[in-house]
Amino acid sequence: MSMRYSKRGPGEGLNYDWENDHTFVKVSTRDTDGAYTLMEDNLKASFALGLHRHETHAESFYFLEGEVDFYVDGDWHRCGPGSTMHVPPGVPHACRVAGNAPAKMLMIFQPAGFDGFLAELAKMTEADFADEAKMAELNARYDIVPMGSVPPHPDDEV
């Protein structure tokens, strides 16, 4: 009999160890028939994600450890353990770790598919990343609309 469920323990699931974060796919697109993807993201102290939006995807974040400064629709929020941030489709957002310390969060992407984006990124070369047309096509295929770098944070002003 085939399994009608999935289980992944600590450190299990497809994982992508990038320069600035280490992501584990806990519930994949395949597991949910495309309904959503659940990932554990271990953000390294240098993590920052530029301003972007998704036209059709919603994202929810549940913060487990550390703190993350989250920019959503023009407002900054510091999110720590037990906090939740939900970003509906069309809403610009960016984030960075706070205090140059690692953080950990769960991310839900609905509908699913972001795990496919990560799988494709993992196969790319430096030349692929430098190819603007290739990156634009990949972003478009996975509903990622880049809008620039992380906006200035009030704590950065002197």
From TrEMBL:
Alphabetized Pfam families for the sequence: Cupin_2
Record InterPro entries: Cupin_2, QDO-like, RmlC-like_jellyroll, RmlC_Cupin_sf
Domain named Cupin type-2: residues: 50-109
UniProt name for this protein: Cupin domain-containing protein
Organism: Ruegeria faecimaris
